[in-house]
Design goal:
Layout lengths: L2 H19 L4 E11 L4 E3 L9 E11 L2 H8 L5 E4 H4 L6 H26 L3 E14 L14 E5 L2 E2 L3 H9 L6 E8 L2 E8 L1 E2 L7 E2 L2 E12 L2 E3 L10 H12 L9 E4 L2 E2 L5 E2 L4 H10 L4 E5 L5 H6 L6 H11 L5 E5 L2 H10 L4
Parallel strand pairs: 3-14, 14-17, 17-18
Antiparallel strand pairs: 1-3, 1-4, 2-13, 5-6, 5-12, 6-7, 6-8, 8-9, 10-11, 15-16
Helix pairs in contact: 4-6, 7-9
């Protein structure tokens, strides 16, 4: 091989590698799949007598490269999302993945809580301090705390509920120091933090983190949900329905292949999620017959900021018409809407 051919080969190889590997500031979202919930949810001593199926839906998210970006531009099934629309500012890929897994954990908690309340079964909630979701850049805890830390104490005072941390910090001033007791990588540590104004606020002093209550639930009978590889809160509604189906007599599915999406809130309301159009396509690909879509309420304030915004249900119906599916799209504002629909459904 002469030198020109060798150099040409190297250039072509470099272009190919960059085309497939070099990350662009975009994500590619596309339809994922429909996964039967019985493989993820196990209620102790449950009678699995359903003739149909309950499924959760996923979307596939991947970092764009030059070649995959070009492919997404040409595909009607793929959507390009700016990085800033997916991740919080200054949030790393690992931190984003951690946040998604926490959202999934919270959705499992809410599914158990709502499911056991609806089935009138025993449960007990344990509060374990607060979970650090995000550390604000230039905030008091920047470089000290990190996402995934669990704050269980402050200045020797045990923290169980998030209100206890908020109330303790309420009277503090900028420049004061606090000692936080945290759990990181399953080990207890103490961190000293000098309080300062929270970035983006006017004079509000704090430790500069966003957090959520760190809690768990014990149920009788016991429930195991094994879905660690799936992130986000959108499986909450379907987890709840599967738990209720396994806890109660009869078959909620009535012999149909049922799927849906939506965050399960502690109130029993079904929250809005992203990527519902892709989930409709995935559900149709997976042979789903009935699909529950969040019929979320959009406030006038949100409409002013986003004039073209539509509810999850409206987008789901539009997508179903576009792909000409026979799948039934059912609007749900609460878990009761889904339960009542299934209750009135005739046996297949």
């Amino acid at each position: 091989m002469n030198i020109k051919k060798f150099i040409g080969f190297i250039v072509i190889a470099a272009i190919a590698v960059l085309g497939f590997v070099y990350p662009l500031p975009y994500y590619i979202m596309q339809p994922g799949g429909a996964y039967e919930l019985s493989q993820f949810v196990e209620v102790e001593n449950a009678k699995l007598d359903s003739e149909g199926t309950m499924s959760l839906m996923t979307v596939s998210m991947s970092k764009a490269t030059p070649f995959t970006y070009a492919g997404a531009k040409l595909s009607s099934r793929k959507e390009l999302l700016p990085e800033t629309q997916v991740r919080s500012p200054h949030e790393s890929e690992d931190e984003y993945n951690l946040r998604q897994l926490k959202l999934m954990t919270d959705s499992q908690f809410n599914a158990k809580y709502v499911g056991f309340k609806k089935a009138n079964k025993e449960y007990e909630i344990q509060y374990n301090g607060v979970y650090v979701v995000y550390v604000l850049e230039d905030g008091a805890s920047d470089g000290i705390l990190k996402p995934g830390d669990e704050v269980i104490g402050i200045d020797g005072k045990k923290i169980i509920r998030q209100t206890e941390l908020i109330d303790y910090l309420a009277g503090k001033k900028s420049g004061e120091k606090v000692k936080l007791t945290i759990i990181r990588d399953e080990k207890e540590q103490t961190k000293s933090v000098t309080l300062k104004e929270i970035p983006g606020t006017k004079g509000k002093v704090g430790i500069g983190i966003t957090f959520t209550e760190n809690k768990s639930i014990t149920t009788n009978p016991n429930v195991k949900i094994e879905a660690d590889e799936i992130g986000g809160p959108s499986a909450g509604l379907m987890f709840t329905l599967e738990i209720i189906d396994q806890l109660t007599e009869g078959d909620l599915t009535k012999g149909y292949n049922v799927a849906g999406t939506g965050e399960m809130l502690e109130s029993g309301e079904v929250g809005r999620i992203g990527g519902i159009d892709k989930k409709i396509i995935a559900a149709d690909d997976g042979g789903i017959e009935i699909f529950f879509a969040p019929d979320d309420t959009i406030t006038d304030e949100v409409k002013k900021l986003n004039p073209g915004i539509k509810t999850n249900y409206e987008v789901a119906v539009e997508t179903a018409k576009k792909i000409d599916t026979k799948m039934k799209i059912v609007p749900v504002k609460t878990v009761d809407d889904a339960l009542n629909y299934l209750k009135d459904l005739k046996q297949k």
